[in-house]
Amino acid sequence: MAAALDGVRVIDLTQFEAGTSCTETLAWLGADVIKIERPGTGEQGRQASQDVPGLDSWYFLLLNANKRSVTLNLRHPEGRSLLERLLAQGDVVVENFAPGTIERLGFGYDRVRELNPRLIYVQIKGFAPDGPHQDFLSFDPIAQAAGGAVSLTGEAGGAPLKPGPTIGDTGTGLHAAIGVLAALRQRDATGRGQRIEVAMQEAVVNYCRVAGFTRLLATGEAPDRRGNGTPLGGNAPGGLFPCRPGGPNDFVFVLTSTTGNHHWERLLDAIGRPELKSDPRFADPRSRGEHVEEVDRILAEWTCQHTKHEAMQLLGGAGVPCSAVQDTLELTNDEHLNRREVIVELDHPTRGTYRMPGWPVHMESSHVPVQPAPLLGQHNREVLGDLLGLGGDELGRLETDGVI
Question: Omega before 360 cis (within 30°)?
């Protein structure tokens, strides 16, 4: 059966992560993503965090799976002409160059719309194009700071802390991909494309709507940092609890509900302390919140006797929300995640065999196997020959002239 986005052609003018995660998502859904790169060096992500000189970085490989690579010199008239021809045959174009770059290259929205009125034109920037910071540059930490995530993260009374996952980058890319899917559906009805703008700052604001705005709406004040606590607190027990043998990630995270005693009573049965169900200090969520130190001590005494996986099995099996704190090495080697293709094994021409995260959305009728990221210009002849009809001699001349 055909993939969900089979027949959708995406012209990928993205770099680094916010844009590439959008187009990788579309590729994982079955779109034909043609990544346009600079001849000789390619997209800047190929060299980002490079561990071995001369080889594409792991950063690049993680963000450009299932794409085809074509090199075009967009500062050369013939390179721009070839891009125009590709855009005329595309369904979607995505770019996240620095503000003003795409317009200086001659591919602003008005020009591209003339080339192809059906094209969906996606722009990802750090800040909104009509705001006071429209010309400012941004990377993931900048977006997380500007969008509120950094202000929410950290220990109580401590300094702000950048969250680990790149919600400012990949989170923005996912928002953009959702917009593309909606625009494709709308085009089915109207026959026309449209412009989509996603600002990294604004995507992070959206991700903060629970952690950041729940307490704001309840109190009228910006929320303080609460470490591993929930926005409104009161979840006792709720947080990290140490496990044996005491390594850096030997913890289990437990979070009980504030809406009743069901999780608490299941937990007490699991740790062998059922007599505490009648203790007035722990009679309800509010009482437990008032005696949180005692609650945490009781649970920690038990978790210290178990590994994190034992604790997870015993508590989770009893119906208590919890998880071992798993690092990326553990996840990479997780048999279940590998079987589900949440972790996939790939074979790259220069990097060899490696494992990486795949697409976590499992669609019964639209399975797209993950393929390794392309080598620079790997599909020049395939795309420019088959799609644009260029012959071998012409392609050779373009390469000699520095166009591709």
Answer: no
- DSSP string spanning 60-72? HHHH-TTEEEEE-
- CA geometry: angle at 313 spanning 307 and 315, to 5°? 100
Q: What is the pLDDT of residues 313-359, one digit of tens each?
A: 999 999 999 999 999 999 999 999 999 999 999 999 999 999 999 99
- Please, are residues 117 and 193 in contact by the beta-carbon 8 Å criterion? yes
For residue 128, the SS3 value is: coil
C-beta atoms surrounding 224 within 10 Å:
13
3-state secondary structure of 217: helix
In this prediction, residue 112 carries a pLDDT of 98
Looking up residue 300, the CATH number of its domain turns out to be: 3.30.1540.10
Gyration radius (Cα) of the chain, Å: 25
Distance (Å, whole) CA 70 – CA 404: 8
If one counts every other C-beta atom within 10 angstroms of the C-beta of residue 393, the result is 8
226 found inside a domain: no
Asked if residue 152 is part of any domain, the answer here is yes
Give the domain extent around 115. Answer: 9-207+337-400
Place of tokens 């996240």: 96
Catalytic residues: 169
Task: Write the CA distances from 24 to 30, 38, 358, integer angstroms.
Answer: 10, 19, 10
Q: Are residues 264 and 324 in the same domain?
A: yes
